UniProtKB/TrEMBL annotation:
It comes from the Archaea. This is Phosphate ABC transporter, ATPase subunit. GO terms for cellular component: membrane. It comes from Methanococcus voltae (strain ATCC BAA-1334 / A3). InterPro entries: AAA+_ATPase, ABC_transporter-like_ATP-bd, ABC_transporter-like_CS, P-loop_NTPase, PstB-like. GO terms for biological process: phosphate ion transmembrane transport.
Length: 279
């Protein structure tokens, strides 16, 4: 059994230069998480940099999803969960924020596309409505179209015989392909103006072409949003992320710039994992 102290690379965070430290949007310090008696995160520290893509990699069950669920307090919904440590979002401890406001600012996209069983239009308009945003019909139409464009779904929905796009958007979201549904979920997420989007293996249920579309979209979205993505696909982490955190047994073994972590890993555990020796 490998001890937590052995695998932790305590120098990780010290290697990051000061200019980057200024752009921390979420700062996680000594995060510990237990489900009942089972501890799944151990003293996790991680800075999340604004307008960057942060990929989280590591073997199955090492705590990646549990970690991102802490960032918008989704674990609050799970009974017997104990979270210790601090998560500071723009200078405020997330426990001091209203949880609905927090989840508006830190949205989430899940492994399987989960559009609501309603129209494409209503899927996007729903979030602002439940958050009490009053919009005129035109403002609502503009918002829906803007979100569809930002999520690279708008042009996919053209129909040669129907020039009225708003009519096309009345179709059920469940009729879209899996990849389109996932982009709709991203559109739904950005409709409430988040700052951060958490993505838990968003491409794992998609074919390679839909996966590449989501990857292109992620690269585009980071101009406006910060993205934290859990992925099992190391090529994907390399292609799209600026920073990568490697988790093992509930510890962050290594965190740093993606190029450096993949080309010059500091820990032998990281090296063995990215070489496919275990995992
Ligand atoms: N609600 C829960 N109750 C109890 N244990 C849980 C719960 N959710 C996750 N776990 C356990 O916590 C550990 C970490 O799980 P988690 O899903 O965070 O890992 P992961 O790295 O995201 O895994 P994967 O890559 O397979 O999705 C696992 O041992 C898992 O069984």
């Amino acid at each position: 059994m490998i001890s937590n102290e052995t695998i932790k690379n305590t120098e990780n965070l010290e290697n990051l230069d000061n200019s980057e430290v200024k752009d921390v949007i979420i700062d996680v310090k000594k995060l510990n998480l237990k489900y009942g008696d089972k501890q799944v995160l151990f003293d996790v520290d991680m800075p999340i940099y604004k307008n960057k893509v942060i990929a989280l990699i590591g073997p199955s069950g090492c705590g990646k999803s549990s970690f991102i669920r802490c960032l918008n307090r989704m674990n609050d919904e799970i009974q017997n969960t104990e979270v210790k440590g601090t998560i500071i979002y723009e200078g405020v401890n997330i426990n001091d924020l209203d949880v609905e406001d927090l989840r508006k600012k830190i949205g989430m996209v899940f492994q399987r596309p989960n559009p609501f069983p309603m129209s494409i239009y209503e899927n996007i308009a729903y979030g602002p409505k439940i958050h009490g945003t009053k919009l005129s019909k035109k403002e609502k139409n503009d918002l829906v179209i803007d979100c569809l464009k930002k999520s690279a779904l708008y042009d996919d929905l053209d129909e040669p015989n129907e020039p009225n796009k708003i009519k096309i958007l009345q179709k059920s979201a469940l009729k879209l392909s899996g990849g389109q549904q996932q982009r709709l979920c991203i559109a739904r997420c950005i409709a409430v103006s988040p700052e951060i989007i958490l993505m838990d293996e968003p491409c794992s249920a998609l074919d390679p072409i839909s996966t590449l579309k989501i990857e292109d979209l992620i690269k585009e979205l980071k101009k406006d949003y910060t993205i934290v993505i859990v992925t099992h696909n190391m090529q994907q982490a390399k292609r799209i992320s600026d920073y990568t955190g490697f988790f093992m047994n509930g510890n962050v073994v290594e965190f740093g710039k993606t190029d450096e972590l993949f080309n010059n890993p500091k820990s032998k555990y990281t090296e063995n994992y990215i070489k496919g020796i275990f995992g």
